[in-house]
Amino acid sequence: MIDESKCVQCGHCIHACPFGAISSKSYLVDIIREIKAGKEVIAMCAPATEGQFGKDITMASIKAGLMEMGFSDMVEVGLGGDMTAAYESLEWAEALEEGRKMTTSCCPAFINMMRKQFPEQFEKNMSTTVSPMCAISRYLKATHPGCVTVFVGPCIAKKAESHDKSVPDNADYVMTYGEFRALLRSKDIELKPVDDSYQEASVWGKRFAASGGVANAVLECMKERGNDTEGITLKKCAGGDECKKTLLMLKTGRLEEDFVEGMMCPGGCVGGPSKHKTEVEITRAREALLSAADKREVIENLKQYPMDKFSMFRDGHM
Ligand code: SF4
Predict the structure, then answer these.
(1) 216 falls in which pLDDT band (50, 70, 90)?
(2) Ligand 1 pocket residue status of 130, Cβ below 6 Å
(3) Would you say the CB of residue 46 lies under 6 angstroms from ligand 1?
(4) Is 109's C-beta closer than 6 angstroms to any atom of ligand 1?
(5) What pTM did the predictor assign?
(6) Is residue 316 helix, strand or coil?
(7) Mean pLDDT of the chain
(8) Hey, what CATH topology would domain 20-301 get?
(9) According to the model, what pLDDT value does residue 20 have?
(10) 66 and which of 71, 104, 182, 245 could share a cystine (Cβ 3.0–4.6 Å)?
(11) Ligand 1 pocket test: which of 263, 276, 279, 282 has the largest number of ligand atoms within 8 Å of its C-beta?
(12) Test site for ligand 1: of 158, 265, 279, most ligand atoms within 8 A of the Cβ
């Protein structure tokens, strides 16, 4: 029997939960087992991580905490944001030429809503580029064969995404910030301020976490490639109601904008179900941290990475 009552996490009905709440079980024990078995277990921290634990806790602080827990390494998923934006920008440029509208594809809850409630638009208008989480997992699996990848972030829908067998080589496990904090407490580890010398992502990739960040990064990539972006119109929707209304407009041919950014949480991932503080507190701390990041360009940044060694498309084709 499916429980039709409202989910305490997000208020959505479990029967049609776009967050995939049915698969929101914790994998902490499995992750600890993999670490104890001596495997190379690599953490992948969501772009929403910066600011989540205050303005003094940098990505370098989080990395130190994860290494103390036994993880082999940590990679910033903002770098996956750069990868996703770079490939999605190629799709947007093509769609623009064909006069076809397109939606982003990095939020699994938005994908689930489209797949279940707007199947025709899912086939026709959804970008086929993988999410930043999947991009980093594939990059790690291509460069560290046999490694185990663990996404750490504010999202429970990512658990459903990691189970989607139609998307190969995605994260092996997903850990929410709540679970990350439980692990910190159980091991008596405290996150400490560390100078933020660590940066793998451009600011554009880092900004994937907030509403508008994905669409802006894709447009930035189009500009960096020399595409004319004058006159392109965007519909940035954050929150279930706004996403649904926009998809209905798309379905009925009444949507005016060229591209849709769909994020199921109000404010984007910074407002995700497992956020550690209020959205306002997180945003304030994030801005302080992000202002210290260098201003590298997305396409230039990706030249350091072997993008030809893994697929950036959902079905895994090269
Ligand atoms: S917007 Fe919410 S549901 Fe979507 S990826 Fe971010 S945290 Fe997850």
Answers:
(1) very high
(2) no
(3) no
(4) yes
(5) 0.93
(6) coil
(7) 91
(8) Fe-only Hydrogenase (Larger Subunit); Chain L, domain 3 (3.40.950)
(9) 55
(10) 71
(11) 263
(12) 265
- Report the separation in Å between the CA atom of 238 and the middle of ligand 1, taken as the mean of its atom positions: 9
Calpha distance 19→273 (Å, rounded): 9
264 Cβ below 6 A of ligand 1: yes
Burial of 13 (0-12, 13-18, 19+ CB in 10 A): middle
Secondary structure string (H, E, C) spanning 152-196: EECCCHHHHHHHCCCCCCCCCEEEEHHHHHHHHHHCCCCCCCCCC
Q: Percent of the chain having pLDDT more than 90? A: 81
Measured by CA distance, the residue closest to atom 4 of ligand 1 is 107
> Residues 101-132: pLDDT tens digits?
999 999 999 998 999 899 999 999 999 999 99
The full set of domain ranges for the chain reads 20-301
Going from the Cα of 226 to the center of ligand 1, the distance in angstroms, rounded, reads 31
CA distance 44 to 313: 19
State yes or no: pLDDT of 47 exceeds 80. yes
How confident is the model over 279-307, as pLDDT tens digits? 899 999 999 999 999 999 999 999 999 99
What strands, in cross-sheet order, belong to the sheet with 102-103?
102-103, 259-263, 234-238
Cα separation values, 47 from 50, 148, 153, 209, 239, Å = 7, 20, 8, 5, 18
